[in-house]
Amino acid sequence: MVREKRRLSVLTLHSLVVAALSYALAGRFEIWWLPVVVFLTHALIDFAKVECGKGGQLAFVLDQLAHAAVIAAMAWAAGYFGLHSYWLQQWGRSWVGILTILSGLILSVRVGSLLVGFWVQPYLDEIQRRRPPSADAVSQPSRGLTTGGRVIGQWERALIFLFVGLGQSASIGFLVAAKSIFRFGELKDRENRMEAEYITIGTLMSFGWALAISYATWFIVRSGF
Half-sphere exposure (CA, 13 Å, Cβ side) for 134? Predict the structure, then answer.
């Protein structure tokens, strides 16, 4: 959907999905205008981003801040912070905890994947500039899976989130050790120094982001905020 948002049908479907999920999770089923406002504002914000043709980290952050501002304004207007939500009536404060955990997990795993991708892109560009592919490299298949690094990063951030939630922060050290062992073949050769530094930088960024979001999320949950 992200790639095809220039098509009106795809943008409409994407906005409908967001509106339906927002309506369901809010639990204010008597407020009919809630999904309508979410649908219209989400479609307009995404349409503006597509028309501007802006990409990169700044555009992504501004786009998400705009969506979050709309959600915050609607939450205030709908009095969501009172005990009016169906889910709050059924689950009490546990529902807020569930949403907080889900939000933290999404921030750590999915949003972390996008941000780390933005952060390491300059280093990847430098590698490609300084080491143009040789004829042999072109003729050889890729040494790794197309999305292997991204999947590994998502799983490591998910495990960090789980370990912090379980109070087993020491287990994160085993993740670092395991990743170092698996990457040893790429890190040991001097001719692969740029790739080794690129991998190390990406790993530190990924772990740092996951730790920050995980500790913040579980602090909020345990404090009952």
Answer: 3
- CA nearest neighbour of 222 among 81, 129, 39, 100: 100
Which structure tokens are listed for 161?
């989130």
Is residue 48 within 8 A of residue 60, CB to CB? The reply is: no
CB atoms within 10 A of CB 55: 10
Write the single-letter amino acid at 134.
Answer: S
| Tokens representing residue 99 in the block | 């949403």
Enumerate the domain spans of the chain. Answer: 8-88, 99-131+148-223
What is each CA distance from 37 to 5, 43, 45, 73, in whole angstroms? 19, 10, 12, 11
d(CA 178, CA 191): 23
Its sign, for the CA torsion 158, 164, 168, 169, is positive
Using the structure block, give the residue that is written with the tokens 């059924």: 90
pLDDT-based confidence at 220, cuts 50/70/90? very high
Both tokens of 216, joined, read 């913040």
Q: Which residue has the tokens 């169906």?
A: 86
For the whole model, what pTM was predicted?
0.78
Given a contact cutoff of 8 angstroms between Cβ atoms, the answer to whether 108 and 214 are in contact is yes
Distance of CA 33 to the CA centre of its chain: 28
**pLDDT (tens digit, 9 = 90+) per residue, 187-199?**
555 556 777 778 8
Structure tokens at 50: 């597509």
- Which tokens belong to 37? 């406002």
